[in-house]
Specification:
- The complex is a heterotrimer.
- Chain A is mostly helical.
- Chain A has helices at residues 2-25, 29-53, 60-90.
- Chain B has a domain at 1-81.
- The longest helix of chain B has 25 residues, at 52-76.
- Chain B is globular, with a radius of gyration of 22 Å.
- Chain C is an all-alpha fold.
- Chain C is 71% helix and 0% strand.
- In chain C, helix 3 packs antiparallel against helix 4 (89-109).
- The chains are: A mainly alpha, B mainly alpha, C mainly alpha.
- Chains in contact: A-B, B-C.
């Protein structure tokens, strides 16, 4: 059974890696958010695997998954709010053009 | 048990495959929907790991979330259909390096750690749903409530940020010409 | 075996619904018409528009049909006649129906046509209006049954159907279901008069046949969901359980068609405003009322 746990963890790790690549390499705000979503998806896989294979009697593990899903939703809402404001102000959400936000 | 391993692996591969497609295609709608199917595959992995409630919840939530992502992509990208083949990336080598290192380190850790005894039998699905409900409205109630209030705050904050300044200033009057 | 029976029942309902729809629109009762028009679609040329997103274009009708059938898989026809009696059935049907949106967006984006694309994105706006009104009434239903299992939900209505117990929830769910199925007053994505067919516009031949079949299946699935959640499912005197389920499902489906025939199409902005300023407070009220009833009335 440890094999399944490892399979799930490796999947989570690879999703995390793809997400990190996406979040760092994309120039568009929405694409960066997609990278972040993938990172969180990797975290979700790990959390569920840990709950299922290590501590199925502790439901705080499932609770944690719900909290991460909340974080995903919140990230989307705030991200799109910022994207709309940015698009209104500058006409694009390209991060290369957002150097003026740097302190 | 072999069936379970098989399904976890297949859905895991599907999640990874669609995850790669997200950043490989130049069509933005495809990219968003690939992310959706990647998340769906993650949800199916949960189902394969006998975590029924969370799996169904994940599958349900992501359908709406990623479709909304798709329309934002179309709104904000210069080339949403990907017909022009624009390159939308920067610092590529650094990003690939960071991604490989991040994935590699976590994989090494996953293999390195002694996970100890692994539970074979999962609780039955109806029991799980019930126990999760008890957890939500019992010990973790404060966390759950905080999550709800956080979403509400985020909704208000996002709306406040997204409403144009002009409309905010002229509240109650006719919209001024831009 | 159960699978075959349920699929057959679904197909039979779709056929009856199609015949009834033809009857009410043309005034002639022709039992063979759906079959003939389906065959005619198979014979016609399946045109692929210029520079389509081929993957979406081909997948959308099939995905639509699959999710409609998947939604029906958790709905019981009789105490044992259900394909998958999931522990989270009431949530699963939400999850399956959420992918109707994905299919419509794919069908809208795929053909590379302006009308189709507007239709697809319109459905996303429509979803933002109706989604809460699907989930919240189901919450109230699950509260009364104290379970998400669909067979238990039907069992909980043995003494009193939910349509009497929570009429507000029934009305909201009925309206939201019509919006989900994009039937007549809410048919913004295909809007025959203004969008020239919208999502359907670029589909011809076999693909259009699948798309039409999927839409009718979706109506039957939703009618079946209303039956299970509000009309007491298989409960009823004299007739066998499955017959009651089918009769109620068909009655609901036909009433959905009829309501649509006498109402004008709703504007997207109005739909959104009414759903959020009126529908969601009412749905919350429904949850509170049901909660009080569940606690007070034993």
């Amino acid at each position: 059974m440890t094999a399944i746990l490892i399979v799930a963890l490796v999947t989570g790790a690879i999703l995390f890696g793809i997400g990190v690549y996406g979040a760092l390499s994309q120039t568009n705000l929405v694409m960066i958010m997609m990278g972040v979503e993938l990172i969180l998806a990797g975290a979700l896989v790990n959390l569920v695997a840990f709950w299922r294979f290590l501590h199925p009697e502790i439901y705080a593990g499932q609770m944690f998954v719900l909290v991460v899903m909340t974080v995903m939703a919140v990230e989307m809402a705030v991200g799109f709010g910022v994207a709309i404001a940015r698009f209104r102000a500058r006409g694009s959400v390209e991060m290369e053009e957002a150097r003026d936000l740097k302190g | 048990m072999y069936a379970q391993a098989f399904f976890v692996a297949v859905f895991g591969l599907a999640a990874i495959g669609f995850g790669v497609v997200v950043f490989r295609t130049s069509s933005m709608v495809r990219s968003a929907l690939a992310l959706l199917f990647s998340q769906t595959a993650v949800g199916c992995m949960f189902l394969a790991m006998q975590t029924e409630f969370l799996g169904v919840l994940q599958i349900m939530m992501m359908a709406t979330e990623m479709s909304i992502m798709a329309i934002f992509m179309v709104m904000f990208m210069m080339d949403p259909g990907g017909m022009g083949g624009m390159d939308m990336t920067h610092q590529k080598r650094f990003s690939i390096g960071a991604g490989v290192v991040a994935a590699g380190v976590t994989i090494v850790v996953a293999f390195w750690v002694d996970w100890g005894p692994v539970t074979v039998e999962a609780p039955d699905a109806a029991m799980q749903t019930r126990a999760l409900g008890m957890e939500l409205l019992g010990r973790s109630m404060l966390i759950f409530e905080t999550a709800g209030v956080t979403i509400l705050t985020a909704m208000i904050a996002a709306t406040a940020v997204a409403i144009p300044v002009q409309a905010r200033a002229n509240k109650g009057e006719m919209e001024s010409p831009e | 075996m159960t699978l075959a029976i349920v699929l057959l029942a679904l197909l039979a309902s779709v056929w009856l619904l199609a015949v009834t729809e033809g009857w009410t629109t043309t005034g002639r009762l022709r039992p063979a018409a759906p079959l003939l028009s389906g065959l005619a679609h198979l014979g016609r040329e399946s045109i692929v528009p210029r520079t389509p997103d081929r993957v979406f274009f081909e997948t959308a009708p099939v995905l639509f049909l699959i999710v409609a059938v998947l939604g029906a898989a958790v709905l019981p026809l009789a105490p044992t006649l259900v394909i998958a009696d999931l522990a989270t059935g009431a949530l699963f049907i939400n999850a399956a129906l959420a992918y109707v949106l994905v299919a419509v967006i794919m069908a809208g984006w795929g053909p590379n046509g302006a009308y189709a694309m507007i239709g697809g994105w319109r459905f996303l706006g429509q979803l933002i209006a109706y989604a809460m009104l699907i989930v919240m009434p189901i919450t109230a239903v699950a509260m009364r049954a104290e379970s998400l299992v669909t067979t238990v939900i039907v069992g909980s209505q043995g003494s009193l159907w939910n349509i009497v117990y929570q009429p507000l929830g029934f009305m909201l769910f009925f309206i939201a279901a019509m919006a989900l199925a994009f039937r007549a007053p809410f048919d913004l994505p295909i809007a025959a008069g203004e969008l020239g067919g919208g999502v359907d516009a670029e589909y011809t031949g076999v693909r259009l046949a699948v798309l039409r079949l999927a839409r009718l299946t979706l109506v039957v699935t939703l009618a079946s969901a209303i039956t299970v959640f509000y009309l007491g499912g298989w409960h009823g005197p004299l007739l066998p359980p499955w017959a009651w389920s089918l009769i109620k499902t068909l009655a609901v489906a036909v009433s959905m068609l009829l309501v649509g025939r006498y109402l004008p199409r709703i504007r997207e902005a109005d739909l959104m405003r009414w759903c959020w300023t009126l529908g969601i407070p009412l749905a919350l009220l429904n949850i509170i009322v049901v909660g009080v009833l569940v606690l007070v009335v034993p």
